[in-house]
Amino acid sequence: MVKITLLRTLLFCELLASNLHLTWGCPAMCDCFKGVKVFCSGFNITQVPTNIPINATGIMFLETSISTVENASFARYRDLKNIMFVSNYIKSINRDAFSGLFHLTALEISVNPLSALEPGTFSELTELRKLTITHNAIKVLPCGLLDNTTKLEILALQGNHIFKMCSSIFYQLENLQELNLGSNKIVQLPIDLLKPLGNLQILKLNHNPLSEFIPGTFNMLGNLTDLTLDSNYITRIYNFTFEKMTSLKRLSLNSNSIKDLSPFAFSTLHNLAWLTIERNQIAVLPFGTFDGLESLIHLSLGGNQLQTIPWGIFYSLDKLEKIILSKNQIEQLQNSAFLGLESLTHLHLDYNNLRSIESQIFQNLTNLHVISLHHNKLKMLPDGIFDGLYNLISVTLHSNPWRCDCLITNLRNWIYENREYIQLSQLVCEEPPHLQGMTIKHLKTRELNCTRQQVPSFKNLDTIPIKDLDISNPLVTCKSHYSDNGNIDITCEVLDCKGINIAIWNKNTPAPLSHAYTKEELLCPANITFTIIAV
User: Fold this and answer.
1) Could you give the 3-state DSSP secondary structure of residue 494?
2) What is the largest CA-CA distance in the chain?
3) How far apart are CA 271 and CA 223, in angstroms?
4) What is residue 409's DSSP assignment?
5) Cβ distance 310 to 334 under 8 Å?
6) 413 with 390: CB under 8 angstroms?
7) Is residue 403 domain-resident?
8) I need a surface site. Which of 318, 367, 392, 471 has the fewest CB within 10 A?
9) What is the pLDDT of residues 391-416, one digit of tens each?
């Protein structure tokens, strides 16, 4: 009620402002502005008044008790261009209610208990450009309903109960540019329904029980730029689904039940700039998923079930500026996760299960402005992980179980050094118990127990070629990352069957810090893992 009253006030003010003064002699419960715009509101109005100024060009009925729009209700008003019925009690509209309105360009019938429309209801509205029939109770769109409305450009039908449509209902609407069928009960689109709409640019099918599309459903929509399919029951995107929609710039698939994306499902969408597939059930991104999307600048995969980011999956997205991977189940990020994303400015990884991140993950992402890593399971970050990111303005790291020992020193220093340039969220220690609840930026060096613990360098251990003393070629290539318990896990790919000796040295002295692992007579395993315990 408050919203309708506010709408009434705003519309009244708009009419008043644009027409300056009222004309007397209007129907009761109506206001006339310069004699050409009429505003009628009040529950005492039970039918369309008969004494509307003959030269009226626009009329609006808001919150009246009109239940039926009779035949020829507006036949006398040949200059009418705009009629609006909003929040009335209209249950029926006679077939010839709008007869004689040869100059009408806009008609709205919204928020009424209207459940049906007869074929031919709009057949004399040959100049109609915009038709809005929203938030009523329409169930069926019969054949012939839109006959002769060939100049129609915008058709809004959202918020009804539509479950059935004549497959040829749009056959005369070759000039239609925008179609909204959202928030209805459409289970399946007839294969030829959209075929006549070659000039359509915007199509909204959100909030329907659509589960799949017959091959060819969208094939004639070569000029479509915006497609909204949110909140349906779609389970899979096939290669053929969007292949002919080469002008598409924005595609929204949020809140469906999508589990599978076919490889190259979007490969023909070379002009797509905005792709959102949030709140689905995607666990795996197949190779080639995003190939062909060279114009993409925004990608959102938040709220899915991703556990890993495949190597090079985003490699072709060299124009991508924003990627949202929030609310997934990602546990680890390898250096190869974001290869090719040199234009990226916003990276959102919050609300995952991240435990470890490799040190070079952001190495080529020098345009990053925002990094979001809050609400994960991070206990530490590699030294120098943010080095070279000179465009950063915001880093959120809060709500992680930070372990505040000597290994956190570099992160603490980085926070302190960048406090005036970068917006940083508050970091609080989770471990050890005596530092729990302390903010990291306020920690003193003596509290971090660095005198009794040497700090191994993650960065220097990132890639380690291990050579036999007698040959110049490496026997093993190793990579390392910190584990949750503070140790360093080193995974090595064996390139030659020789003895292997792994050791960690303090950079200031040649003495080993912990222990050396030696294994003779290897049987050429694919890889082996060493755990180095810092002492």
Assistant:
1) strand
2) 108
3) 11
4) H
5) no
6) no
7) no
8) 471
9) 999 999 999 999 999 888 899 899 88
CA-closest candidate to residue 486, choices 512, 448, 524:
448
Phi first, then psi: give them for residue 433, nearest 5 degrees: -55, -35
Q: State how many domains the chain has.
A: 1
C-alpha neighbours within 13 Å on the C-beta side of residue 123:
13
Q: State the Cα–Cα distance between residues 318 and 266, nearest whole angstrom.
A: 16
CA angle 186, 189, 195 (to 5 degrees): 140
User: What dihedral angle (degrees, nearest 10) is formed by the CA atoms of 274, 388, 425, 304?
Assistant: 40
Q: Cα(423)–Cα(32) distance, rounded to whole angstroms?
A: 55
534 token code pair? 């810092």
pLDDT digits (tens, 9 = 90+) for 214-250: 888 999 999 999 999 999 999 999 888 999 999 999 9
**Do the domain assignments include residue 4?**
no
- Tokens representing 300? 């959102």
Distance CA 64, CA 512 (A): 88
Q: What is the DSSP letter of 27?
A: P
Helices (H), 75-173: none
At 118, the amino acid letter reads E
User: Which residue stretches of 397-446 are H helix?
Assistant: 409-417
Strand (E) positions, 444-512?
463-467, 474-482, 488-494, 500-502
511 in a domain, yes or no? yes
Q: Extract the tokens encoding 449.
A: 């127990």
E strand segments, 253-339: 260-261, 274-276, 298-300, 322-324, 332-333
> pTM of this prediction?
0.80
The answer to whether residues 82 and 105 touch, using CB atoms and an 8 Å cutoff, is yes
294: nearest Cα among 276, 263, 315, 280? 315
* Residue 519 belongs to some domain of the structure: yes
Distance set, CA 425 to CA 115, 349, 394 (Å): 53, 15, 8
Q: Supply 472's token pair.
A: 């110049």
**Which range of residues forms the domain containing residue 489?**
459-532
Exposure string for 199-220, b = 16+ CB within 10 A, e = fewer: ebbbbbbbbbebebbeeebbeb
